């Protein structure tokens, strides 16, 4: 019996303190899962789509500097409306009549007066218009703003990635700890079964009554229920981990190492590299550019254009219907009742608001880092305490078991020692997972994991 207990404790300690080469292998597998999460996570995919949208918006802003060619065309069919009356017949018919008399011929015909419709009837105008901005401050600032928004969205993607890294690591540790809990309860079940065997032997030899046997059988049922609960926790942990990786919720998780070492220390770095601050910085820069863009009404807009087309009646097309028109357009807003000034002031208040938010966020991130360091130190202290408690609980159980076999101890006292041993094993496993989770939280708050 003592040999079984010693082996059990040795196995647990081995699970916690295997050589560092195994840790490197586990870290490699965990990094592979993180990369899989980067590739498949749907939330990150949505952020990447937004980044792609920002890139396309920048391309659109750049295209505003290039020539724009359009095909324009009109066709009109008209009847009625204003006319221009030309008395050509009244002017020319007397002259033609005199000429016919002089020449004794009818070479000069009678001409009717003309009435020309002002609205063009059966008239078309088709042209290619090429336009190009020569001076336009608004589209220049618009391009600059779009560049800032790309940086901001890239920072948002990185924020999501870092949060995803932390969640994947925490879920991985949780799954590992849940599996350890199942193993611990299974080992406790073996000890209870051994106790049942011992009590049955003592009962047959008349050393004990059946009370201890009944109590040990009851404890066996309680541990079976605990195993069921621990197995359920393990299944839930597996489902959550696979959810983060966008895999089937029942996919197997590779734990290719039995070693998760505690981290003795963590680095303390500044939070100035946090992507949340980058987001706010780029937002401030974008609003400053927006403020300048609102003031750019002071700069006139100058465009040039060239029309190449054809116009005529009855769809005639020849050298006489063809034409070109080249010109420049100037727009200079001299008075707008203060509209542009008010817009500029609004952008100025947006800058001030974001600057205040930046200061608050910077303090909040520093607070998070300080709290995560305190949590890590507490988790590490609890881990060291749990190791000591496990060693003491193991010794206490061995001592109690020896006394119990000699008939000098009640079974309820032995059972209490067994429960202490099992709880100490669970606490050590949980404390170890808490240390790793706290380290992942520090890594997140310091933006330390390489995500590029």
CATH class of the largest domain: Mainly Alpha
Helix amount: 55-70%
Average predicted confidence as pLDDT: 84
Q: Based on CA inertia axes, which overall geometry fits?
A: elongated
Q: Any guess at the CATH architecture of the largest domain?
A: Up-down Bundle
Strand order of the largest sheet: 1-4-5-6
Count of structural domains: 2
User: Within the CATH hierarchy, at the fold level, what is the topology of the largest domain?
Assistant: Outer membrane efflux proteins (OEP)
CATH homology superfamily name of the largest domain = Outer membrane efflux proteins (OEP)
C-alpha Rg (nearest Å): 43 Å
Largest sheet: 4 strands, antiparallel
Low-confidence stretches: 1-24
Structural class: alpha+beta
Strand content: 5-15%
Overview of this protein structure:
It is found in: Cell outer membrane. One of its GO terms (cellular component) is cell outer membrane. This is TolC family protein. By secondary structure, the protein is an alpha+beta fold. It folds into two domains: 2-72 and 131-445, Outer membrane efflux proteins (OEP) (Up-down Bundle), CATH 1.20.1600; 83-119, no CATH class. The protein is built from nine helices and six strands, in the order αααββαββαααββαα. The protein has helices at 2-16, 20-40, 42-63, 88-103, 137-204, 210-244, 275-295, 339-405, 411-445; strands at 68-76, 83-86, 114-117, 123-135, 301-313, 322-331. The strands form two sheets. A four-stranded antiparallel β-sheet has the order 1-4-5-6, with no helix packed on it. Strands 2-3 form a two-stranded antiparallel sheet. A hairpin with an 8-residue loop joins strand 5 (301-313) and strand 6. Helix 3 runs antiparallel to helix 5, helix 7 runs antiparallel to helix 8 and helix 8 packs antiparallel against helix 9. The longest helix is centred in the middle third of the chain and has 68 residues, at 137-204. The protein is elongated. The two termini are 54 Å apart. Mean pLDDT is 84; it is low at 1-24.
